Amino acid sequence: MGGGHYDRDAHEALTTTRVHKPREEVFAQRKMHPSLNPFGVAMRESRDSDNHPNSRAIILVMDQTGSMQDIPENLAKKTLPKLMTTLIDEGTLADPQVMFMAIGDAEASGEREESPLQAGQFESEGSLMDKDLTNIHLEGGGGGNEGESYDLALYFAARHTSIDCFEKRGEKGYMFITGDEPCFSRVSAKIVKRVIGDDIKRDIPIDDIIAEVSKRYHVFFLIPDLPRRQYAGCEASWRKRLGDNVIGQESPDDTSLVAATLIGLTEGTYSDLSEVAPALKKRGVNKDQAARVYRAVAQYAAAIGRGGERPAAEDKEPPTGQGKGRTRRL
Amino acid sequence: MPIRDEPTDAVRLPPPMDRALALLIARAAGLKTDEAEALKTALFGNGPPTFGQVRRISAADLASAADKACPKTAVVALKELAELMPRIDPRTPVCDRCDESPLSNVGGKIFALDVGAVCPFCPKGRLELVPMKLRMVAWTDGHLTEPQTTHDLRILPGCELPLQDEGILHWADGWIEPALERALRDAGTSVYAFLAYMRLGRKTLARIEDAADMLHDPKRLGLADARSFAEAAKAAKAFVEAREVTNIPAKPFLIERLGGRNLPRLTVAGRTYLLEGRIGRGDKTDVFRALWDHQPTERVVLKISRTLDDADLMKNEVRVLKAIQASEDPGAYFFTRILPEYVADGTTVGSDGLERRVTVLRDRNLFDWTLEDVIEEYPEGVEPQSMVWMWNRVLTLLAWTHRIGYVHGAIVPSHVLLHVQNHAVTLLDWAAAVRYKSGKERIAIVSDGYEAYYPKALLSKEAASPEMDLAMSARCMIGILGGSPKDGRLPASVPTPIADFLRLHGMYGKPSEWTRAKDALELQKAFGKIAESVYGPRAFHPFLMPRKRK
Questions:
Q1: Strand partners, B95
Q2: In what order do the strands lie in the sheet with B416-419?
């Protein structure tokens, strides 16, 4: 996979024609599309080709449960081309290849979800990407048990993708998980068997599978807006695992730009945070949105040493002995 | 459905795990050492088995092997052993002294211990992972393959290219340049790693067929002398280590890029942090900027207690910060991102053997200057326009703090922190904070050297109230304008309406002379009008820290 050209005009034309269509029409699947079924899939491959000698794998994981559907809808109707054009025009990545995954809640008791994991192919061409995206079955289940099956997407990325960018060039791919709930603490062997078909015998602790994915991908968790950070301890739960790679967006509309900016910072397109907002404005992003994106990526930029110049810390050891306090009790 | 293979199935047990397996067989089946060895050989033949072989052993396999090797073994013991063996995988820890692996099966319930635990079978041992490679780099094109794959058959059709050192050596007629061989051995790296690095990292080995010749004559790879061999060997080791999958948790390469390799480490609440250096000395703690030693990382500040008797105060701060983060007030989504964010707390034992409390908070990028720094940098006072935005921000934070029921109780210059570029403010040190709505709580501590910022009502232990915070914030503003927080005197350059307003709300003089604002928002509104009457509509006013040097 991963052949075909990225044609921005066609891609934009595809998406703009459906801005006003209702969600049910854009996402017409009422059950899992066979091309997205992960069961029995050996590998999804991101490969170099003559047209794309420098392929770079990007996985976008959509949470297709009820509360999160604004993100896939927004991507399909408006912003997916923006992600691609920003990456290409800014010179961040020459040949991005995007694969969509969608997750539901495989553990939800009572209602059996039909499509707890969907996985497309790595595609370079807009129309093919778009096909995978709009083939996603938006079930709208989930909720109730404080967790979604993000672990399945991590497992699939770890064990069922093969990417030239890393395997040939040592360049990590990117994996963006959008969501608003905590992760389960383990990858369940039972569910993996049911959904993907692998016999892994025992559950895998979530930290282990994250470590495995992190070897080959920069993994981010994107929370669509600030109020949802606190939902069921969502942000806190992810921060324990992904630290500053947990991104609190201020609007679901920003997902594409935030992802593109995070990649730009990681790749060094922006040598530090101060270059982010001007670059976005130059691309016609309005001031408010540029400021939102800036705020969303600020902590991550700092974490990778691109947060801007700060006063130096003193080269001192932790205190010893009974030191002097400056607190007087009344 | 066919049973799938685990990626590690074909990996052989390394020697310590092989010994652990023999010990486990002896212990679980109640056998003597030689009987256990015989049973193991009956099961797997000579030499270490692979993880896949061990994993697939069934009770029937065990029974038939036991028939041959040690027929008297109890059937129940064999059944228990059969349940234990599939639990052995590359992440099973082994004691670093006695090689036991503490798996046990008590009536069908399986017990295992984690890495780092004390060994239950010997006095001094600890359980550690036995390092092993699960996927290795194929030097031919960089693919990650199983570590037992010996040849690449794909890349040059009709040609078997050796991937392992043994095969590569054979391919190179049994020798490589002696100085290069020495360099590789000294660096602890392998020949295939060297080839992978030259081919994929440095890209000086374009034609695969040339690899053997290159090993005889490294000059053709651009390597001239022993020093360049040593450098390449080291780089080769790093090159494959960054790519290969082992059973050891991933290494944080990003942190190393940030210079983290040599930073002092400190562990709090089960997480290790790398200390970048000290960024401040608080009332009770020394404050360090630090990174979580993990990939991905998290930037934090560590407040490490300097004194040994203020644990109660540090615990109070943790309690308050947790409550702030857990607030369900509708404004919480916004303010929890500005106010200090609790990550963890715990204790650490320092080089002096004393136990100290540590509070871990998120580091807010570019929040770098306190009002104390500002006063030091601008002893004559900042421009009042700068003070206007600073107070505004402080009042907004206080309004929300009060709304969720807390009085901060220590708004002094060292506790107000600025993000200079963004004109943002946050409040530090919540150790004094109390819930005020009962009308009974009092502020119990004062920050030494800052008494002038505390209103008399607080010092005389009256019940804590929001207006105490407001008065302290007004006194801070008087401080940064170059005035005297003790009595409210201000330089003549401060416009009179502003000076009067600050003094009015600083709780100076007798209670009958105080002007009380209903709350922070009302105060902010009133001040907004005053500021506008002096400076006109609000506009961005640049402020620099440190100030521009001539």
A1: B127
A2: B369-370, B416-419, B424-427
d(CA A329, CA A12) in angstroms, rounded, equals: 66
Q: Which residues of B touch A315 (CB under 8 A)?
A: 277-278
| Average pLDDT of the segment spanning B199-206 | 84
Contact A149, A104 (CB under 8 A): yes
By CB atoms closer than 10 A (0-12, 13-18, 19+), residue B402 is buried
Residue A191 — φ and ψ, nearest 5°?
-70, -40
Q: Would you call B74 an interface residue with chain A, using a CB distance cutoff of 8 Å?
A: no
Asked if residues A66 and A140 have their Cβ atoms less than 8 Å apart, the reply is yes
The verdict on B445 touching A (C-beta cutoff 8 Å) is yes
Q: What angle do CA A209, A213, A219 make, to 5 degrees?
A: 115
Give the closest of B277, B282, B354 to A316, CB-based: B277
pLDDT tens per residue, range B525-534: 999 999 999 9
- Which has more pLDDT, B107 or A298? A298
Closest CA to A11 of A60, A78, A102, A87: A78
Q: Please tell me whether residue B541 adopts helix, strand or coil conformation.
A: coil
**What pTM, to 2 d.p., does this model score?**
0.77
Place of tokens 């780092």: B116
Query: How many whole angstroms from its chain centre is CA A285?
Result: 21
Which single residue is written with the structure tokens 């009422």? Answer: A30
DSSP state of B31: -
Cis bond before residue B147 (omega within 30° of 0):
no
- Is A111 a residue whose pLDDT tops 70? no
- Spell out which residues of chain B touch residue A318, defining contact as CB-CB under 8 Å: 264, 266, 275, 286, 288, 304, 348, 350-351, 356
d(C-alpha B89, C-alpha B52), whole Å: 9
What is the per-residue burial (b if ≥16 Cβ within 10 Å, else e) of B151-161? ebeeeeeeeeb
pLDDT per residue over A302-313, tens digit each? 999 899 888 888
